[in-house]
Amino acid sequence: MDHPIKRDHARFRKIVKGKIRGGLKKYISSGQMILPKGNGKYSVPMPQIQTPHFRFGEKSQGGVGQGEGEAGESVDGQPKPGQGEAGEGEGNKELDVELSLEELAQILGEELELPRIEPKGKNQIESEKNRYTSIGTVGPDSLKHFKRTYREALKRQVVLGTYDAKNPIVVPIRSDYRYRSSSVKQEFENSAVVIYMMDVSGSMGDEQKEIVRTESFWINLWLKSQYKNIEVRYIIHDATAKEVNEETFFKTRESGGTLISSALNLCKEIIKTDYNPNEWNIYPFHFSDGDNWSSDDTKICLDLLDKDILPASNVFCYGQVESRYGSGQFYKDLSEKYGKENDRVILSKIKNKDAIIDSIKEFLGKGK
C-alpha cells in the first residue's frame, strides 16, 4: 500500500502537470524560459499553488454578519484597498517546479496531439549492452555479490551445525562465492542531428530571433524525447554562411544581403562530413523572412535540396518568420515546387509569437 505522502506527492504533480498543460500556449507564445537543471530535469516557473483555507479575524474586531458595515469596509481589520504602507503584505510568488524531459515532452505531445516519431530502419546504430540479470558461481572479484556470498556461507554453516547464534561469525569459503552474471543483448540506438539555419540579415530583427529561439527549444525537447542520442548544429547566414555556437546563433545580427544557398551548401557539407544518413536521422530547419538575393539563387537552393539535402534527411522544414521588411517569396517558391502537403518538405508561416505553437505542430505532426 502506498504511503499517504507518496499519494499526496503524486496528486500534486498531477495538478502541476494540469496547470502547465492548461497554460502551455502561454508558456510558448510568451517565450517564458523553461531552464534545464543539468540533471535531466527542467525548471518550470508557475504561479504558486495555494491550498484553500479559512481565515479568522480577531474576536474583538467583529466579523461577517456582526453589526452594520459600509461597502468596501474590511472584514478582519486589514487595510482597505489602496491603503497601507509600501511593501506591506505578500506579493504574488512563482513556484519553480522540476519536471523531467519525458514529463514535459508528454505534456507537449498530448496538447498538440503529436505522433511518436518512427525512425527509418536504416538510421539505427547497433550496440551491445551487458545486462547483469543472474547470479553465477564463477566470475572475477569485481563482480562478487557479497550479500549472496554471505547468505550461502550462513546456510552452509547452519546445515553443518557450526553456526553459533551467540557468536555469529560467518566465514565464506570458495564454494560459497557468488558472482553477478551478465548476458549480452543486442540493442538498436537511434541517433539524430538537428541542423538549424537562420537568416541574420538586417531584415531579421530581435523579435524574429526570439520566435526562432522559442520554437527551436520546444522542437529540441520533443526530438530529445524520441531519440537516445541527439546533436544540434547551428548555421547563420546573410550573403555568406558560417557555423556558430548556440549563443551566437541567437544574438548575431548582420546588415548584408541574403543568399540562402550559402546556408544550404554548408548544411550539405556538414551532413556529408559528419552524418552518414545510414546511421543518423537528419533534421534540417531553416528560418528566414523569405527574402533571397535573386531567382537564380533560389534555383540553386532547389537544386541543393533535390540532389543533396532531401535524400539524406528525414524531413526538411522551412519556417517563414513574418517581418515588415521581408517579401516572403522563398515560401512561395518552395510551395510551388513541393506543395504544402509534401511529406519530405514541411512549410510553416509564423506570423507572430502566438503562431509558434501551430508551427511546432506543423513541423512535428507528421511523425517523421
List the topology elements.
Layout: H1 4-22, H2 24-30, E1 35-36, E2 41-47, E3 94-100, H3 101-112, E4 125-136, H4 146-160, E5 179-189, E6 191-199, H5 206-226, E7 229-237, E8 241-244, H6 246-251, H7 260-274, E9 281-288, H8 295-312, E10 316-321, H9 329-338, E11 345-350, H10 356-364
Helix pairs in contact: 3-5, 5-10, 7-8
Short summary:
Helix 8 links the parallel strand 9 (281-288) and strand 10. Helix content is 36%, strand content 22%. It has 368 residues and is α/β, with parallel strands linked by helices.
Account of the 3D structure:
The chain has 368 residues and is an alpha/beta fold. The protein folds into three domains: 1-49 and 93-113, no CATH class; 126-186, no CATH class; 191-364, Rossmann fold. 36% of the residues lie in helices and 22% in strands. The chain has ten helices and eleven strands. It has a six-stranded mixed sheet, with helices on both faces. Helix 9 links the parallel strand 10 (316-321) and strand 11. Helix 5 runs parallel beside helix 10 and helix 7 (260-274) runs parallel beside helix 8 (295-312). The chain is elongated, with a radius of gyration of 30 Å. 26% of the residues are buried.
